[in-house]
Design a protein that fits this description.
Structural class: alpha/beta
GO molecular function: methylglyoxal synthase activity
Order of helices and strands: EHHEHEHEHEHH
CATH superfamily: Methylglyoxal synthase-like domain
Protein name: Methylglyoxal synthase
Pfam family, one: MGS
InterPro entries: Methylgl_synth, Methylglyoxal_synth_AS, MGS-like_dom, MGS-like_dom_sf
Low-confidence stretches: none
Bound molecules: 1,3-dihydroxyacetonephosphate
GO cellular component, one term: cytosol
Strand content: 5-15%
Mean pLDDT: 95
Number of helices: 7
CATH class: Alpha Beta
Number of strands: 5
Length: 139
């Protein structure tokens, strides 16, 4: 599965701890991330990550484009709900696209935990079936 990992600055430490705790699961999947988040994951958790631009420079939109092409299976996005972001419209757009294409997206650690354990226990198999069938292209 292709998994996007994103964290706003005040949530980056939480995401690193989360990815470290579930490294055995994450290492079996293909990881993508916004720029700084991806750099930290590769440095601190030693997992390979495809890095996009930093969020404020378009990284959320790059991940959104993958969702629109049915190329992203899950998004874990530790948002900071207490700090205004200059690229708030991009954040909203990413979450919207996940809803358009029914891609599982967690915006906090509690939900992320459920998603990642669901992934481990095979509850994401429907994504494989969808890929085999050519996916939903939203038309
Ligand atoms: O701002 C972000 C998501 O909206 C995250 O970007 P960085 O991972 O580059 O800090």
């Amino acid at each position: 599965m292709k998994i996007a990992l994103i964290a706003h600055d005040k949530k980056k430490e939480d995401l690193i701890r989360f990815v470290t705790a579930y490294k055995d699961i994450f290492e079996r999947h293909e990881l993508f991330a916004t720029g700084t988040t991806g750099m930290l994951i590769s440095q601190e958790v030693s997992l390979p990550v495809h890095r996009f631009k930093s969020g404020p420079l378009g990284g959320d939109q790059e991940i959104g484009a993958m969702i629109a092409r049915n190329e992203m299976d899950m998004v874990i996005f530790f948002r900071d709900p207490l700090t205004p972001q200059p690229h708030e419209p991009d954040v909203t757009a990413l979450i919207r696209l996940a809803d358009v294409y029914a891609v599982p997206l967690a915006t906090n650690m509690g939900t992320a935990e459920v998603l990642i354990l669901g992934l481990k226990n095979g509850y994401m198999a429907w994504r494989d079936i969808e890929h085999e069938q050519g996916g939903t292209d939203g038309e």
